[in-house]
Amino acid sequence: MYRWLAGALVLLVAGLVFQLGLLAFSMYVLLLILPLSWWLTRCWMEHLDAARVNRDVQLEIGDRVAVELRIRNRWFGPVAWVLAEDHLPEHALRQGPPRLHVQGKPVRAGPIGRSKSLVLKYEITFAMRGYYQIGPLVLETGDVFGLHRRWRIAAAPFFVQVNPRIVPLSGYQIASRRPVGEIRLTHRLYEDPTRMAGVRQYQNGDPLNRVHWRATARTGLLHAKQYDPSCIAGATILLDFHARSYPARGEPYRSELAVTAAASIAHAVFHLGQQIGLVTNGRDAADRIRLEGWDKEFRSRQQAHRQVDMHPQSDRLRPLVIETRRGAEQMSRILDVLARVELTDGLTFAQLAGEVAGRMPRDATVIAILGSVDMETSLALDLLKHQGFAVTAVLVGLTEQELETAYGLLAAYRIQMLHARDEASLTELCNLMLMR
């Protein structure tokens, strides 16, 4: 407005000095219209309200959501025009293939009469799992001469969580020769005092609570109890979601396949009544939510869209951990994390394994889901194996050359391996383990 005023005053002075009557008259009119149009534009924008029908929801891949907003005019007069646009995540629309499919237009324009409403409706189909911010609503209005425009956020966004797809697994033979359940460890690092295996002669260093008094009384020599080694039941899933592990040429297929594999294995183990847990070095999309700023005004539409989107980055360097245990809510917690997890350049897989090794139970199989394998990753898996964990590596979406390299690195440390090329091959993962 100040630029218009300054320009009009300069032209008015020029018209008076050079006695240009028509120019001077035009500037008088413009100086009268400028404050009037500015006042009208401000009144229109301040008296526009918007209400959103939708609330935060959890969906499955392929589900649809009907979005509806109502923009109401509370002013005593009509609003000449208003442009309403509901903000959608651009990365989800531009990605190939797109994560969202929009039916209809999230934009509506037109005049609004006194105490009338303008309704904006459209539908969104969610083609991939994720955590999506739908909205907020950006309103734009201005005077009929085009001298002033104003932009404002009128309705806060809502969030949609789309859970990953779960593929039924056939056989459930992960890391064992029988369906996922109790299997004996091949070494006696940990023994189960409830599972007596036999009796042997007492040896120096055996604790007194291991003395078998009946055998000692019968033979006249000290004897000690022997126990079976601890049993493995359930699994802890280590999902590597470092950006370096997923080359751009394979995205988003490889990372989405890794999430699907994690969800499918967790689902199978959970429904067997076994303990299940999840650890990943990815970032949580919920950490990028903006919690304020939905009532601001902006100088341009581009500035409004930049300021209302989710934060582009998260500085979180802590792993996402769902503790390994049984429970009715365990699967829903894991699905929440897998729905929101995003690639990050923070912790590598080796750093992740070193960070959480002390928090994982050794009576559960460690299933590492990997998008690629290098020397650092194979050494980290070998270290877990030497710490007493039963380790299985599940490789997803690798090319023939990458698969050959990965097999060479993991076979050197005798780590069990499986490979899933696509979702269809996930169903046979466990049967492949049985055949091997």
Write the layout of secondary structure elements.
Elements lengths: L1 H16 L3 H26 L1 E5 L4 E4 L3 E10 L5 E8 L3 H5 L5 E4 L3 E6 L4 E10 L3 E5 L2 E6 L6 E7 L2 E6 L19 E2 L6 E11 L11 H7 L3 E7 L1 E2 L2 E5 L13 H19 L4 E5 L2 E2 L12 E2 L2 H8 L11 E6 L4 H11 E2 L6 H8 L8 E6 L4 H12 L4 E6 L3 H12 L4 E5 L2 H4 L2 H7 L1
Parallel strand pairs: 2-11, 16-17, 16-22, 22-23, 23-24
Antiparallel strand pairs: 1-3, 3-7, 4-6, 4-9, 5-7, 8-11, 9-10, 10-19, 12-15, 13-14, 17-20, 18-21
Regions with little confidence, pLDDT below 50 for 5+ residues? 173-189
Shape: elongated
Strands of the widest sheet, in order across it, are 20-17-16-22-23-24
The rounded Rg comes to 32 Å
What is the number of helical segments per DSSP (H or I, 4+ residues)?
12
Largest sheet: 6 strands, mixed
Mean pLDDT score: 84
Percent helix, as a range, is 25-40%
The portion of residues forming beta strands comes to: 25-35%
Question: What this model shows, in words?
Answer:
The structure is a single chain. The chain is of the alpha+beta class. The chain contains twelve helices and 24 strands. Strands 20-17-16-22-23-24 form a six-stranded mixed sheet, with helices on both faces. The longest helix has 26 residues.
Q: In a nutshell, what does this entry contain?
A:
This protein has 436 residues and is α+β, with helices and mostly antiparallel strands. The protein contains twelve helices and 24 strands.
List the main descriptive attributes of the protein structure presented here.
6-stranded mixed β-sheet, 12 helices, single chain, alpha+beta, 436 residues, 5-stranded antiparallel β-sheet, elongated
